[in-house]
Specification:
The protein is an alpha/beta fold. The chain is built from twelve helices and 20 strands. The protein is globular and about 70 Å long. The chain binds pyridoxal-5'-phosphate (PLP). Pyridoxal-5'-phosphate binds next to helix 10.
Length: 422
């Protein structure tokens, strides 16, 4: 991936200088590269093509929550991808961006009645169900609508994804999915229900997985469960394998997509008609950066703080997951000594730290930095904490850029509030 690279000592996004973008849009700002997202899609498709003939290609349903900007979703739609959504809001986005309803999967443990109804009205591919009461609710709503709701039961295989505790989702102690015994009973119940059409099983064991071993373990358990359902006379038409493929943030080794495809081909593909994948981070993670300015350099006897105009409200991953994100100067100063910085934001929280003890060339107030690999779970997790407006999102297309989300204003935030009379 060379989309964000130095040319003549200046960090670029494709053909554009990031300092030029910053001058026009201000900071903080998210900057995405359309070509980088395109490359990520192509790499996954190519890896799958190595194992699957074109008529048997798994459906790639991009997990919108990673980065749901309309222009990002429209790019997914143009590449024939579907979407994995987790709310009615994301359904609205995905449809508006042009993603076809028959390629949309609705995941999540807490779908409310309005969201379920909307999904059924729009005719999405399937609702991935995470509990018995949820399945009963879906069946009741489908009954009122006089239709059969397409459902998939989400299996919790109780495997360790070997990732950060806050992004592990496939252990018995996590709120997600149904345990094997519950899946079997519920599957049988659903098959007999007049308002349910049971398509199959899904799983999603966690995010930022850097080894294929947990995938293998989970896929094998899923295959075993599917076989046992089929042995009992139930049909399993679709197996949805979730997302979770990790990317390189620091010095991890990302799993090989070719091997991932072979694993699916060997373990899953003999069992069902349709395979679904739900990658999020893999497609957008390395395709975006957060551009920020240095407000102050603050020195104490033991530390040197680089205080940025971007904080945990703009990019939450370091505070929430102790995530590592490389921080680079936009203009690489020549012949400067290297200094150790704690890179922090302006938010009134000690957790508002983007990087600890980073060796960077000596930098000054007003200099620009890029926080790398912020294309997934960056803008989509941003908040208004400290009444800080959401940053804009910029999409670079070759030699131009388009503001695909404007910077929010303080008025945008306050307008929804009411000041009560005495
Ligand atoms: C978040 C999520 C994904 C995407 O995960 P990534 O690690 O970004 O690939 C896929 N499926 C479900 C159900 C999810 O909740």
């Amino acid at each position: 991936m060379t989309v964000f690279a130095y040319k003549d000592g200046i960090l670029h996004a494709d053909q554009l200088r990031l300092d030029d973008i910053a001058e026009k849009t201000g900071t903080p700002a998210y900057v995405y590269s359309e070509s980088a997202i395109g490359q990520n899609i192509d790499s996954l498709k190519q890896a799958l093509a190595g194992s699957f003939p074109s008529e048997d290609m798994p459906l790639i349903a991009y997990a919108c929550k990673a980065c749901g900007n309309l222009s990002v979703l429209a790019l997914m739609a143009r590449n024939d991808l579907g979407a994995d959504i987790v709310s009615g809001g994301e359904l609205t986005r995905a449809l508006r961006a042009g993603i076809r309803p028959e390629k949309i999967i609705f995941s999540g443990v807490g779908k409310c009645a309005g969201e379920i109804r909307m999904a059924l009205e729009r005719g999405i591919l399937q609702i991935n169900v995470e509990s018995k009461p949820e399945l009963e609710k879906i069946a009741a709503i489908a009954g009122e609508m006089n239709i059969k709701a397409p459902v998939v039961l989400r299996y919790n295989p109780d495997v360790d994804a070997e990732t950060h505790a806050k992004i592990t989702t496939g252990r018995e102690e996590n709120k997600f999915g149904l345990l094997a015994a519950d899946v079997t009973a519920l599957y049988e119940w659903a098959c007999a229900h007049p308002n349910l059409q049971v398509r199959g099983l899904s799983l999603h064991i966690g995010s930022q997985l850097t080894s294929l071993a947990p995938f293998r373990a989970a896929f094998e358990k899923l295959a075993e469960l599917a076989k046992s359902l089929m042995a009992q006379g139930m049909s399993v038409e679709c197996l949805d394998l979730g997302g979770g493929l990790g990317i390189v943030y620091e010095n991890e080794s990302a799993p090989s997509l070719e091997e991932y495809a072979r694993l699916i081909k060997t373990i899953i593909s003999p069992l069902c008609k349709q395979i679904i994948l739900e990658p999020g981070r893999l497609l957008t993670g390395n395709a975006g950066i957060l551009l920020a300015s240095i407000l102050y350099i603050k020195e104490t006897p033991n530390r040197r703080y680089m205080i940025l105009d971007a904080g945990m409200n703009d990019m939450m991953r370091p505070a929430l997951y102790d995530a590592y994100h490389e921080i680079r100067p936009v203009i690489h100063p020549e012949n400067r000594r290297s200094l150790k910085y704690d890179v922090v934001g302006p938010v009134c929280e000690t957790g508002d730290t983007l990087g600890v003890g980073r060796n960077l060339p000596e930098m000054d107030e007003g200099d620009l930095v890029a926080v790398m690999n912020c294309g997934a779970y960056g803008a989509s997790m941003a908040s208004n904490y400290n009444t800080r407006p959401l940053p804009p999102e910029i999409m670079v297309r070759d030699t131009t850029f388009i503001t695909v989300r404007q910077r929010q204003t303080v008025e945008d935030i306050i307008n929804l509030e009411t000041k009560m009379d005495e």
